[in-house]
Amino acid sequence: MTPQPKSTKSIHELQCFLKDEKQKEYSIVGLFKHFKSDELSKLFRNLKRNGIPFGEAFLKLILMTVGQMTIFRCVSTLGDNTDAGKDAYYGIKNAPMTNWRTLVMAMFLRFETLKQRSVTTNTNGIKCFIADDTALEKHGKTLEGISRIWDHVFHRSILGFKGLFLAYWDSTNFVPIDFSLHNEIGKNLKKPFGLKPEELKARYKKDRDVNSCGAGRFAETRKSKVTSLISMIQNAINKGITADYILVDSWFTCEELIRFAFKNPCMFFLGMCKFGNAKYDMKDKSYDAAKLLEKCKATMNVKRSRKLKSHYYTIDVGYKGMMVRLFFSQYANQSSWNALLTDNLSLTYNEAIRIYQIRWGIEVFFKEAKGYLRLGKCQSNDFDAQIADISIIMITYMMLSLKKRFQAYDTIGGVFRDVQHEMIEDTLAEKLFGLFVELVSSILCRLEINPVDFIRIMLEENILSKSIIEIFEKEMEEKNLRKAS
Fold it and tell me: Cβ contacts of residue 115 below 8 Å, gap of 6+?
């Protein structure tokens, strides 16, 4: 049997026969073709290459994320079937000059364009910015910028970063659009960042140009999370992204963020607030949240929401020179009260709860991204690689969200399992097509017919069907894209 030509290793067109056209269109590779706009193609060309075009490597990194594979495992598995070694991919992820924030935003703006083709597009629903942080646990004290952080979920100190994420709810889909990583210096001056002096000295260090994107992202680790969040929201607004509300939990309900929303007339703040020391003004007197609740109980009739099975009070008060509305609520079978704050003085209690429930989407994102896309699992010592890894995960989540929107899946998990199945089908298709080419080549050689002359004659005499001709044409036009897949 004649050896298989090297070019046939990258042919995936047998999927045309194994899957219908609509399924093929919505595969990860198909989605990536749609995501590539002129702006993105230009951005890819301007980025540094390391033995492989950036666009091709970028798609490969996305497929590694879906396949839950590390670079080393992927390159080791593919062996001679990949044109780039692991250093090419590591070089792309470790490059400090790559502006991953711009790349993520460009992909999101492309997502906004593509979603208009979906029949589920809703232009009249509530649009929200949603923000929250999550603990990203790491294993290894030599990671650049690593520290001990407090995990509020498990109430313990862990080694890692706090990941602050900004997401966008477009009234139908939840999409992450920006993030920053933060460490915590702690209160123990003898062990800053929760590390011993020798452990601090052993942390990985990298020289970067002060004007590089990597230097800017690393500087964010020491910034206040509220400051970073305001900066991310402002950047999204500058890109033309509009929202009706900023939704946060009690950890981010503070004067700075409320005032930021207060100064934007088209956007409101809505967040849970603690029963802490914050003072609210009512009739020339100041009260904390607990005292306000007592006053409400003493002077107001409690209201009941049958739909939400809760009792509540609504009160307008002053806060740091701003008028805000507080909702105190108590749900059935609960003894404790919750407080919800907004600067929208026309918002009703039922509407406030309905809108605030959208915030749960970011908790679902954390669970799905950590479970399906290995969010926070990168163990590279280089901080630039940490930024690149999370950026690629966010872009992958966008693509899965678009597939979910087009094909009406119930969850991202369902999309993830389907895409992994498609990848297995594509691998099978590639092998079957390779065997088909070997078989045809062997028969032609036995008949002493040149395969190239045979194909040329078939084309000239219109013996080959239009679909076969399209396969060869597409193979030539999209060679790099298929190699990456």
Answer: 121, 170, 172, 173, 402, 405
Across 389-414, average pLDDT: 77
DSSP string, 385-442: HHHHHHHHHHHHHHHHHHHHHHHT-S-HHHHHHHHHHHHHHHHHHHHHHHHHHHHHHH
**How far is it, in rounded angstroms, from Cα 57 to Cα 52?**
6
Domain boundary assignment for the chain: 6-26+421-484, 252-372
pLDDT range class, residue 328, cuts 50, 70, 90: very high
> What are the pLDDT digits (tens) for 301-317?
999 999 999 999 999 99
Tell me phi and psi for residue 220, to 5 degrees: -65, -20
The sign one gets for the Cα dihedral 215, 221, 226, 227 is: negative
For residue 265, the SS3 value is coil
pTM of the model as a whole: 0.79
Identity (one letter) of the amino acid at 357?
Q
The residues, ordered by sequence, that sit 6+ positions from 141 with a Cβ below 8 Å of its Cβ are 159, 195, 199, 202, 203
DSSP 3-state of 476: helix
